[in-house]
Amino acid sequence: MSAVITALPVEQFGKLREWSIAHMRPLLTDEHRGMTAANRKWLSDQLARLIQQIDARLPGDDWINLVDETADAVIGYGVISPFLRDPSVTEIMVNGQPAFGLTSPRAWSRPGLR
């Protein structure tokens, strides 16, 4: 019988995310910059190798979140990447880091970011 893999605690996931970002950035070349399907696959494959090397096991949701957040930081637009993918967001205003606002059909807001 195989062990059930449960979600990582938030603190451990955060440490793994930072470790992943730190290890992926040196592998990045100009060829892999920009959030394209091919670059995302490249990053996912490289990240899978790194995770395998440390013998970590992640449940599906944690793996998906790790790939998303590492891709956003390494080949994407950082903390605003999820909002760029959200079709309800019609405008993103950046005024330094971390202050920015969003406009959507609902209203302007200042999202809480991690």
SSE string: HHHHEEE
Distance between the termini: 37 Å
Q: Approximately how much helix is present in the residues?
A: 40-55%
Described by strand count, sense and barrel closure, the largest sheet is: 3 strands, antiparallel
Spatial order of strands in the largest sheet: 1-2-3
Q: Which structural class do you get from the secondary structure elements?
A: mainly alpha
Low-confidence stretches: none
**Global outline:** globular
> β content, as a range?
5-15%
- How many helices? The count is 4
Q: Summarize model confidence as the mean pLDDT.
A: 81
> What integer value in Å does the Rg equal?
16 Å
Number of strands: 3
Give the secondary structure arrangement, pairings included.
Layout: H1 10-24, H2 37-53, H3 60-74, H4 81-85, E1 91-94, E2 100-103, E3 108-109
Antiparallel strand pairs: 1-2, 2-3
Helix pairs in contact: 1-3
